[in-house]
């Protein structure tokens, strides 16, 4: 009896140490690298504060890095075994990062029920070899941005566009400052039927006559003195802000500044249909994503995934939409309040996802050279597209070590 | 009388010529001034007016108050970091290069020519090629994420050029001066410190300025190496203002003008050494 009492006493004493002791969460520090600025940075900071209030054990440090240094910086640090826990970048980084094992697969952190709330195209884009390698926060594509005081009736196809521009251009006011950068004008290449890759990811840009059709179209625009056709973002941007350009091609990121400069005169609509084929403008659609570093341990990965879930929740994405004009990946976000963003959503319906395979990196320069050489009358459209094809395939072969 | 007119015409011509080139040189600067005052962030305005519509100094206020928008690092801190890195780079390159260049210039030893040429080879590599090895070396030394690491990285780039630069200069300083010093009882070190160095101030000043500018303007290595905003430099934060698509051009322009001031100050301070001819007439006959 005495012994039993003693044991009970000891048990009671020992267990009293643990009274009121819930399992205490370990403190976690997460680092996030991004290149967000202005309003999007404000939303990020607000979200971080809110998340830290909800989870006092978690500290989140953010570092802003210039966009064109971010990929390189991440690659260098992660390859040396370091780097942040979370990285924010466009989906076209996935191919190279995944190949070098710098980012972690996220398949186990997001179940089907969670993914059901997200735009299927966006989720599809971040898959590499069948694994989800990033989580999409927003989507973006270019569309027609116009000045309502200069454009009353929107052109339906490219023939109407030419007529309209010819009637608007007068003195120092231009109907259309057309950005001939490949990213901006790619929509017409796809509208004319050009394809970038075959099923083995080899270049096929000169198959069919799509490339030639679009290059001829661009050349015709450029030879019309009432059009400005130039691979010059700054020029188009400045003219539009000054109210001297009726129409330009640009993305949602620019809208904030345009509204500041021109107020409610800014409108967004899908680009006119490509008259020759009757197909709609099919711009690249790209997502901005969260990546998780492959170097960190499972606890950190879990914490990173939880924070990403919070960042892509309806409430946070709603803020990104309202304040920073991000086009949400979460379908539950209410976008009805903004007709400008509506224009981009409309355009996105006819867009094509930007390929995330590493081979895509070989496409940009040769296609730009093709456009520039045709516009400068240094090559015929057929020669230019043939050269582009060869250059792209050479680059692809070189990167494959062939 | 006629001579006077001729003289005046000559002056007129000279002044017109100088003014013409000053205008050419100042035009881009005025463009930047105009951009910095423009409230609507325009890079390529269609009409160039020095004082644009609704001009304001708000861009200057903004960049002075919060030069790095994602983290509150005071401007003074960034200025200090930049001066530290630029000054450190300049000092380190002058110190290392002066002694090395003296040896290359005055002594003959095995490997002298090969050494000189291999310095030249390092200059032919683009800066990006040295990025990865520097990253690894400095990480192993545990100085990568610090201003000291940055100074070492920059000096590694500027020392080879500085050696060539100074060696070329030392070669022109007459040997007789040192020989005289040696005869008078100096040893080699004293001859170097008390005779050669004072005579080489213009070349040292140029080397210093080169190192200073290198450390002041560089942002690529800095953005790759540093992760603590407290260590950031002015050039880094200026570069950071450039967005993927959008850049606040007014603030960018205002900040560019602000951070060019210290370089101008250093240049003015060093200018008289650079301009003055020195050993001329030291060894006559």
Describe the fold and architecture.
Chain A is α/β, with parallel strands linked by helices. Chain A has helices at residues 2-17, 38-54, 67-79, 94-99, 112-115, 120-125, 158-168, 182-191, 210-223, 233-241, 255-262, 298-311, 314-324, 339-348, 364-375, 381-399, and strands at residues 28-34, 58-64, 86-90, 127-128, 131-132, 135-140, 143-147, 174-179, 227-230, 245-250, 266-269, 284-292, 327-328, 352-353. Chain A contains 16 helices and 14 strands. In chain A, strands 1, 2, 3, 6, 12, 13 and 14 form a seven-stranded mixed beta sheet that branches. In chain A, strands 9-8-10-7-11 form a five-stranded mixed beta sheet, with helices on both faces. A two-stranded antiparallel ribbon of chain A has the order 4-5. In chain A, strand 4 and strand 5 (131-132) form a beta hairpin. The mean pLDDT of chain A is 90. With 285 residues, chain B is an all-alpha fold. In chain B, 71% of the residues lie in helices and 0% in strands. In chain B, helix 4 (112-124) crosses helix 6, helix 7 (175-183) crosses helix 8 (188-199) and helix 11 packs antiparallel against helix 12. The radius of gyration of chain B is 24 Å and the shape is flat. Classes of the chains: A alpha/beta (402), B mainly alpha (285). Chain A binds chain B through residues 35, 37-38, 41, 62-69, 72-73, 76-77, 80, 172, 233-235, 237-239, 241-242, 244, 251, 253-254, 256-257, 260-261, and chain B through 40-46, 68-71, 131-132, 135-136, 139, 220, 223-224, 227, 229, 239-240, 242-246, 248.
- Number of extended strands of chain A: 14
Segments of chain B where pLDDT lies below 50 for 5+ residues?
277-285
Structural class of chain A: alpha/beta
Radius of gyration of chain B: 24 Å
Which two chains form the greatest contact, residue counts included?
A-B, 34 and 29 residues
- The radius of gyration computed from the alpha-carbon positions of chain A, rounded to a whole number of angstroms, is 26 Å
Indicate the overall shape of chain A: globular
Which structural class should the secondary elements of chain B be placed in?
mainly alpha
Compute the separation of the termini of chain B in Å. Answer: 42 Å
Distance between the termini of chain A: 85 Å
Main sheet makeup of chain B: none
What letter string, H or E per element, gives the SSE order of chain A? HEHEHEHHHEEEEHEHHEHEHEEHHEHEHH
Total helix count of chain B? 12
Helix fraction of chain A, binned, reads 40-55%
What is the count of helical runs of chain A?
16
Please state the average pLDDT score of chain A.
90
Write down the overall mean pLDDT of chain B.
Answer: 87
Largest sheet of chain A: 7 strands, mixed
Strand content of chain B: under 5%
Query: Which percent bin holds the helix content of chain B?
Result: over 70%
């Amino acid at each position: 009896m005495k012994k039993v009492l003693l044991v009970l006493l000891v048990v009671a004493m020992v267990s009293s140490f643990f009274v009121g002791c819930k399992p205490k969460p370990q403190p976690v520090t997460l680092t996030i690298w991004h290149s967000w600025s202005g309003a999007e940075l404000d939303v990020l900071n607000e979200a971080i504060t809110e998340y830290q209030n909800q989870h006092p054990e978690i500290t989140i440090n953010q570092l802003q890095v210039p966009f064109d240094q971010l990929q390189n910086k991440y690659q260098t640090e992660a390859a040396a075994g370091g780097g942040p826990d979370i990285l924010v970048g466009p989906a076209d980084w996935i191919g190279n990062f995944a190949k070098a094992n710098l980012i972690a697969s996220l398949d186990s952190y997001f179940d089907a029920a969670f993914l059901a709330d997200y735009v299927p195209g966006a989720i599809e884009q971040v898959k590499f070899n069948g694994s989800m390698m990033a989580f999409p926060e927003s989507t973006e594509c270019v569309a027609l941005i116009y000045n309502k005081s200069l454009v009353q009736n929107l052109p339906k196809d490219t023939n109407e566009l030419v007529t309209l521009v010819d009637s608007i251009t007068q003195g120092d006011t231009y109907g259309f400052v057309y950005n001939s950068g490949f990213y901006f004008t790619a929509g017409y290449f796809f509208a004319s039927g050009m394809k970038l890759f075959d099923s083995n990811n080899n270049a096929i840009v000169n198959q069919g006559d799509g490339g030639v059709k679009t290059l001829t179209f661009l050349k015709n625009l450029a030879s019309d003195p009432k059009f400005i056709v130039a691979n010059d973002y700054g020029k188009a941007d400045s003219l539009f802000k000054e109210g001297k350009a009726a129409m330009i091609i640009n993305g949602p990121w620019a809208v904030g500044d345009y509204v500041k400069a021109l107020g409610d005169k800014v409108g967004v609509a899908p680009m006119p249909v490509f008259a020759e084929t009757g197909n709609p403008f099919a711009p690249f659609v790209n997502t901005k994503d969260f990546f998780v570093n492959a170097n960190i341990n499972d606890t950190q990965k879990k914490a990173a995934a939880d924070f990403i879930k919070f960042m892509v929740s309806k409430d946070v994405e709603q803020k990104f939409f309202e304040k920073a004009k991000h086009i949400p990946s979460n379908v539950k976000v209410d976008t009805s309040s903004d007709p400008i963003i509506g224009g981009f959503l409309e355009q996105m319906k006819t867009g094509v996802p930007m390929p995330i395979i590493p081979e895509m990196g070989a496409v940009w320069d040769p296609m730009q050279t093709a456009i520039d050489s045709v516009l400068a009358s240094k090559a015929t459209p057929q020669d230019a597209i043939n050269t582009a094809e060869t250059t792209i395939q050479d680059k692809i072969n070189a990167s494959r070590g062939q | 009388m006629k001579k006077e007119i001729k003289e005046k015409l000559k002056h007129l011509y000279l002044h017109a010529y100088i003014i013409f080139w000053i205008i050419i040189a100042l035009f881009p600067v005025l463009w930047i001034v105009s951009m910095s005052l423009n409230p609507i962030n325009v890079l390529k305005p269609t009409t160039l007016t020095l004082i644009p519509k609704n001009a304001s100094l708000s861009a200057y206020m903004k960049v002075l108050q919060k030069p790095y928008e994602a983290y509150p690092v005071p401007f003074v801190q960034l200025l200090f970091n930049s001066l530290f890195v630029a000054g450190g780079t300049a000092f380190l390159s002058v110190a290392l290069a002066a002694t090395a260049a003296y040896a290359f210039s005055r002594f003959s030893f095995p490997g002298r020519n090969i050494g000189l040429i291999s310095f030249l080879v390092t200059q032919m590599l683009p800066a990006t090629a040295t990025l990865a090895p520097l990253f690894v070396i400095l990480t192993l030394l545990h100085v990568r994420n610090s201003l000291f690491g940055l100074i070492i990285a920059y000096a590694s780039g500027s020392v080879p050029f500085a050696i060539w630069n100074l060696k070329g200069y030392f070669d022109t300083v007459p040997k007789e001066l040192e020989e005289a010093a040696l005869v008078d009882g100096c040893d080699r070190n004293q001859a170097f410190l008390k005779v050669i160095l004072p005579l080489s101030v213009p070349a040292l000043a140029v080397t210093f300025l080169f190192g200073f500018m290198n450390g002041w303007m560089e942002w690529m290595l800095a953005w790759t190496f540093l992760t603590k905003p407290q260590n950031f430099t002015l050039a880094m934060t200026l570069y950071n203002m450039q967005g993927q698509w959008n850049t606040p051009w007014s603030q960018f322009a205002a900040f560019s003008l602000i951070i060019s001031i210290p370089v101008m100050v250093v240049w003015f301070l060093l200018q008289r050494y650079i301009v003055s001819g020195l050993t001329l007439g030291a060894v006559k006959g």
